[in-house]
Amino acid sequence: MPGSLSTADGMRGRIAAFLAQEERAMFDLLRALVLKPSPSRHKPGTDAVGALLADSLRPAGMVLEVVPQAEFGDHLIFRSPAAVATQPAILLFGHMDTVFPLNSPFSGYREDGQIISGPGVIDMKGGLVCAVFALRALAACGLLTEIPLTFVCNSEEEIGSPTSTAVFRDEARRCIAALGFECGGLNGEVVTGRKGRSGYRLAVTGRTGHAAFAGADKASAILELAHKTIAMEALNDPGRGIVVNVGVVAGGIGPNTVSDHASAEIDTRFLRRDDAEETAARLAAIASQATVAGTAAELLYTGGRPPMEQSGKNTALFEIIRREAKRLGQPCAAQLRSGVSDANTIAQSDIPVVDGMGPTGNGDHSDREYMVRRSLPARTLLAACSILGIGGERLRSG
Question: Which of 3, 46, 60, 85 is deepest in the core (most CB within 10 A)?
């Protein structure tokens, strides 16, 4: 049949030709998405982004399932005709929200030669464009009736995916592999592993009093927190990839009063589950042991994500992508990242997953965020050809 995966080499040429014709449309969609402010907690904005995505994927014949949300934007699940009829599928994923508030001075969309800037241009509205046009290219070649594909777009990744984590877990159980469209590295890197993250809040209590009369035995919560901060920061272990950061501290009511309360917000990063458990135990031990008499502390877990370990399965999936990049003459390398994403959650389902399939750039989460213009069509082509390659591997192994 014309769309058969047995003619994959010819299909690559047809995919490339389609995307070359659609290049201006890619940037038009990117501009439209960037000009829709979509902070995580602004439901109208993220829903507006979702509406643009739904309109853009209508020509591909994807079947849309909406997962309604009251507080956040609705999550969207697009399925190819083959995914509706058969399982398992290949999972694509990306988020519609950004970190920039509605009143952010960093706004607008600007193209300046090879540099495109704007809020979310690489984190990750550019990645959404890559996924959309990769799917449209595959549809134009008749491949969405052969390759089962599921594309999940969530609305609150930047605040930890509180309502979409369950969606990802459920979809991952039905899939054989997953591709995330966070931004790629400037040298063509694709993410094969991510550190995990755990957040904590440490609450310290002491005994209030007048600073002038407290004496040497004052039970200062701030003093105790200072001792604990030094002890916690000493847990950093670069050789093992363990990061502990006391990022926010608070306490006291005035300079002439001994503080009876103090608190700290703590961020930890780790490569392996064992390291996460060890770090948590060591933090708990620090919290339980008082240096200043009359003080006590409680350590509370505030959330996080498990590590996406650089497994053999992830490496095998990356090798398919690397081979496609070589055919296309594009740079491609494996990368371990410290930041977390929904890939961390998907990895717990024990399916191969890579991330960073989106366009390249830098400065995300800042007013310096930019995309390298040529990377958008290039990475879209790589994504489409990689999906074709994964689909071929699936048929050969099935």
Answer: 46
Q: Which residue has the tokens 């209030």?
A: 208
C-alpha closest to that of 359 among 78, 134, 80? 134
- 331 prior amide bond cis, ω within 30: no
Q: What is the pLDDT of residues 181-217, one digit of tens each?
A: 999 999 999 999 999 999 999 999 999 999 998 777 8
For 30-72, the pLDDT digits (tens) are: 999 999 999 999 999 999 999 999 999 999 999 999 999 999 9
**What is the distance between the alpha carbons of residues 56 and 28, in angstroms, rounded to a whole number?**
11
Phi and psi angles of residue 68, each rounded to the nearest 5 degrees, phi first:
-65, 145
Domains parsed from the chain with CATH numbers = 5-194+307-397 (3.40.630.10), 196-305 (3.30.70.360)
Q: Which residues of 57-75 are buried (b: 16+ CB within 10 A; e: fewer)?
A: beebebeeeeeebeebbbb
The alpha carbons of the chain give a radius of gyration, in whole angstroms, of 24
H helices of the chain, where? 8-21, 23-34, 43-57, 81-85, 126-140, 165-172, 221-233, 273-288, 312-328, 342-347, 375-397
